[in-house]
Specification:
heterodimer, A: alpha/beta, FAD/NAD(P)-binding domain, 2 domains, 11 helices, 27 strands, B: mainly alpha, Cytochrome Bc1 Complex, Chain D, domain 2, 0% strand
Chain lengths: 424, 103
């Protein structure tokens, strides 16, 4: 690819795609064609790999991802608390080349769903037989006017997409004086990673307890209660962080004062030393730009047998961007499972067959309570043809009996295996 | 159509009909087994040293037995007892056969 110029490269791809599509249409049972995957996170990278692996190389796959490295949100709270470095949660995309995935580091400027083409930001058009969008979330700052500009967002961090912000939040925490207040705001559900804010509050409290014991962690939650593993978090906070961590429900952020790091609530103003705002979220911009039908103007509505948009044939959406099925969290684990569901359905469709009528996915989210102990929530979801959605399997799933070190190890083992499952 | 051909055609229709009822999707085993990969590795090949058990190449009967023990609660577990309750007997047979065939 190095000596091939960009236009030739795209043209070559087009040829592969056309050849594949012909093969697919010839009535054979092997899938062919060209699938473009946009977004190389837990959903997109998994989809790209599994489309290649399961088609035995029969389907051409192009992955378009703006970043040159993958940085994992799961485990990133341990970078904030100082247990891990950014390098520990960073992986390259080279592993996908082994599967024959063509990785292009660029952004998609536009999608023409009727012509089945995409336009790249740095120029060039590409055609697809099927398009997979795994765009994650974008943030909504309309509700907090003072935060609705880049300069403010450089100071009041979210660190809800792992990367430079994760490191910057770690720095703010390290620079905070002993006796300072670290406040984290939680948006109304649904948002990416339901237990994530409470995990972050916990491990930050763990760090402060040892290193700056006069400090406080304040959780300002827009929701009326802890959104995931409630009993386990509340128990951990009262057992371990009684004098450090304070939880305030029904405390939606209305605005901020950037200079004084003040959180402005409906009836109260809270002065902090580090203010970590997790903003409300919606499907990544490309979803709306592609004309896909959204629920509540925020999340993409899909057909659960194929993850295909209900409004726009040929486009499949994965991960945090979708309007979720009942009790289904927005998690990396779930995005990985969406990807496999979609890959299987796409390969069937490209081979002229119907998608599986009974897709099944499962989820597990581990959360750290301190440097060593973790808890989990698990669930299994199966397609219900009457309700036309995935429903949680009754009696399956659940949460940890108690926080424990075995699951601290399992959480790290899970991370290693899911990273390998998507990228190697 | 000659009677013999007709009978053959009918038999074929019956055959494909019952085959379709048994295996609605020929990739069902593969798809179900892929739901385990997040922890046990792609095709059951766990990352060495990750602390997660590899399932690739496990004897089918042994895997089914362990899975059933998780489901009934007699095998100690942090999470597998809750996951196992989400899969039917037929599904775990398919999954176990898939992993047993991964060498």
């Amino acid at each position: 690819m190095m000596n091939l110029n960009r236009r030739d490269f795209l043209r070559t791809l087009g040829t592969v795609a056309a050849g594949g599509a012909l093969y697919g249409c010839a009535g054979g049972t092997r899938a062919g064609g060209h699938v473009i995957v946009v977004g190389g996170g837990f959903g997109g990278a998994t989809a790209a790999k599994y489309l290649r692996m399961w088609s035995g190389g029969g389907v051409a796959v192009t992955l378009i991802e703006r970043n040159t490295q993958f940085i994992s949100c799961p485990i990133s709270n341990l970078v904030v608390s100082g247990e891990k470095q950014l390098g520990d949660i960073t992986l390259g995309y080279e592993g996908l080349a082994k599967w024959g995935v063509r990785v292009i580091h660029d952004e998609v400027a536009g999608v023409d769903a009727a012509k089945r083409t995409i336009r790249l930001a740095r120029g060039g058009e590409m055609s697809y037989d099927r398009l997979v969008l795994s765009p994650g979330v974008d943030f909504m700052y309309e509700g907090t006017p003072a935060l609705n500009n880049a300069a403010a967002q450089d100071q009041i961090l979210h660190a809800w997409k792992a990367g430079p912000q994760t490191v910057a939040l770690r720095k703010q925490l390290e620079d905070m004086k002993d006796g300072g207040v670290f406040a984290i705001t939680v948006p109304k559900a649904p948002y990416r990673c339901p237990p994530g804010p409470y995990e972050r509050a916990s491990v930050v409290a763990g760090y402060l307890k040892t290193h700056k014991p006069k400090s406080k962690v304040l959780v300002l939650d827009a929701n009326e209660e802890v959104q995931s593993k409630k009993g386990l978090f509340l128990k951990a906070w009262s057992d371990l962080y009684k004098d450090i961590l304070e939880y305030r429900p029904n405390s939606e952020l209305r605005d901020v004062d950037v200079a004084s790091r003040t959180a402005i609530l409906e009836f109260d103003k809270v002065k902090t030393d580090v203010l970590n705002v997790i903003p409300p979220q919606r499907a990544g911009d490309i979803a709306a730009k592609s004309g896909l039908k959204l629920v509540n103007n925020r999340w993409v509505e899909i057909d659960w047998r194929s993850m295909e948009s209900t409004s726009t044939p040929g486009i499949h959406i994965l991960g945090d961007a979708i309007f979720p099925a009942p009790t289904m969290p927005k998690s990396g684990h779930m995005a990985n499972q969406h990807a496999k569901l979609a890959a299987a359905a796409i390969l069937n469709l490209l081979a002229g067959q119907a998608p599986s009528p009974t897709p099944l996915v499962m989820n597990t989210c581990y959360s750290f309570i301190d440097a060593k102990n973790a808890i989990h929530v698990a669930s299994v979801h199966v397609y219900d043809a009457d309700k036309k959605t995935l429903q949680p399997v009754q009696g399956a799933g659940g949460v940890s009996a108690a926080r424990n070190e075995l699951e601290g190890k399992a959480a790290l083992g899970w991370a290693q295996n899911i990273w390998a499952d998507m990228l190697t | 159509m000659k009677p013999a051909h007709l009978i053959a055609a009918l038999a074929l229709a019956a055959l494909t009909g019952s085959a379709a009822a048994q295996a609605p999707d020929p990739h069902l085993a593969r798809n179900l087994a892929a739901t385990c990969a997040n922890c046990h590795g792609t095709n059951g090949r766990a990352v060495p040293g990750s602390g997660m058990e590899a399932l690739a190449g496990t004897d089918k009967a042994k895997l089914v037995e362990k899975f059933r023990e998780y489901r009934s609660g007699i095998r100690p577990a942090t999470v597998m007892h809750q996951i196992a309750k989400g899969y039917s007997d037929e599904q775990i047979e398919l999954i176990a056969a898939y992993f047993a065939a991964q060498k």
